[in-house]
């Protein structure tokens, strides 16, 4: 080595066969990558070309039978819904024990918690029942809303009770549901792109809004401060009592999206017997205090 240069005689040597093998492997890898890309592209094109799905004649017959059966059920529910005794309306609403948290969890709210469980195919549901479900905010399966315990609302629930189940939740269930699954409408501020506005209801938000988790009390105060509601607990107590600002809180919260129960038995599709009333061994209709166990399993 002269002049501080590199002594090539002591530099590591790589066999010529190794270099050739490396070059061949790199070429093969490039060819495989190109082939995989062509295969994925061809698969996408073939999938996109299948604009129509083949349906057997039996599927049309089955769909027709489902529609006819659901229409008959809807007519039956229409008849029984007109004369519904609401005995719980005559009784005084339970007093909320806000001071005693342990006792508070046992108090039943003065509202219904309604969960939609059935009706996957929208075209199989009679149009009147579809309108009622959307009016209640139950346009999708595994969604839940709060409604006041009134004669009118109970009549509506009876008309769609083959798709929903409902009952009186405890205050603790309401609190858990709001803390874990509450979402509200938000939007960006034009003057300040980094800022965020929280809408009090759908009318204020319009059609363009962002579904955002209700994560702090500031969001409540910004949207409902003028109504005297400044924290999440205020919403919990207002909903549980069915107070004067119940509709304000209900409009502020988006319908709750729930998950399927964690037990393997409930992961399967609903069977025809599941659409029976809860009191007759099914999953639908009024289930009273048992609504807590169902909702807590779906939160």
From TrEMBL:
The keyword Cell division does not apply. It comes from Porphyridium purpureum. One of its GO terms (cellular component) is nucleolus. Belongs to the universal ribosomal protein uL30 family. GO terms for molecular function: RNA binding; structural constituent of ribosome. This is Ribosome biogenesis protein RLP7. It is found in: Nucleus, Nucleolus. It holds the Pfam family Ribosomal_L30. PANTHER family: 60S RIBOSOMAL PROTEIN L7, RIBOSOME BIOGENESIS PROTEIN RLP7. SUPFAM superfamilies: Ribosomal protein L30p/L7e. CDD domains: Ribosomal_L7_archeal_euk. Residues 32-57 are annotated as: Disordered. Residues 124-164 form the Large ribosomal subunit protein uL30-like ferredoxin-like fold domain. The lineage of its organism: Eukaryota, Rhodophyta, Bangiophyceae, Porphyridiales, Porphyridiaceae. Keywords: Nucleus, Ribonucleoprotein, Ribosomal protein, Ribosome biogenesis, RNA-binding. Its main location: nucleus. GO terms for biological process: maturation of LSU-rRNA from tricistronic rRNA transcript (SSU-rRNA, 5.8S rRNA, LSU-rRNA). Involved in the biogenesis of the 60S ribosomal subunit. May act as a specificity factor that binds precursor rRNAs and tethers the enzymes that carry out the early 5' to 3' exonucleolytic reactions that generate the mature rRNAs. InterPro entries: Ribo_uL30_ferredoxin-like_sf, Ribosomal_uL30, Ribosomal_uL30_CS, Ribosomal_uL30_euk_arc, Ribosomal_uL30_ferredoxin-like.
């Amino acid at each position: 080595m002269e002049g501080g240069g590199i002594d090539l005689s002591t530099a590591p040597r790589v066999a010529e066969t190794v270099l050739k093998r490396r070059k061949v492997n790199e070429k093969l890898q490039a060819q495989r990558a190109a082939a995989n890309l062509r295969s994925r592209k061809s698969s996408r094109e073939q999938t996109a070309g299948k604009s129509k799905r083949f349906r057997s004649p039996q599927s049309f017959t089955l769909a027709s039978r489902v529609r006819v059966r659901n229409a008959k059920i809807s007519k039956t529910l229409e008849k029984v819904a007109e004369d519904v005794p609401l005995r719980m309306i005559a009784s005084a609403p339970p007093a909320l024990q806000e001071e005693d948290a342990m006792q508070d969890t046992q108090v039943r709210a003065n509202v219904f918690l309604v969960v939609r469980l059935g009706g996957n195919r929208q075209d199989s549901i009679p149009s009147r029942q579809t309108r009622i479900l959307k009016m209640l905010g139950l346009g999708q399966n595994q969604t839940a809303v709060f409604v006041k315990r009134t004669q009118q609302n109970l009549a509506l629930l009876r008309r769609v009770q083959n798709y929903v189940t409902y009952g009186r939740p405890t205050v603790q269930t309401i609190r858990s549901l709001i803390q874990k699954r509450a979402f509200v409408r938000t939007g960006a501020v034009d003057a300040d792109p980094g800022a965020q506005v929280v809408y009090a209801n759908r009318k204020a938000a319009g059609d363009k809004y962002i579904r955002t988790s209700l994560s702090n009390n500031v969001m409540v105060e910004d949207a409902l401060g003028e109504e005297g509601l400044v924290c999440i607990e205020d919403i919990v107590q207002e909903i549980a009592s069915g107070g004067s600002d119940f509709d304000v809180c209900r409009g502020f919260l988006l319908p709750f999206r729930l998950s399927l129960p964690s037990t393997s038995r409930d992961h399967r599709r609903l069977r025809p017997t599941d659409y029976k009333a809860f009191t007759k061994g099914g999953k639908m209709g009024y289930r009273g205090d048992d609504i807590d166990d169902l909702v807590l399993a779906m939160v």
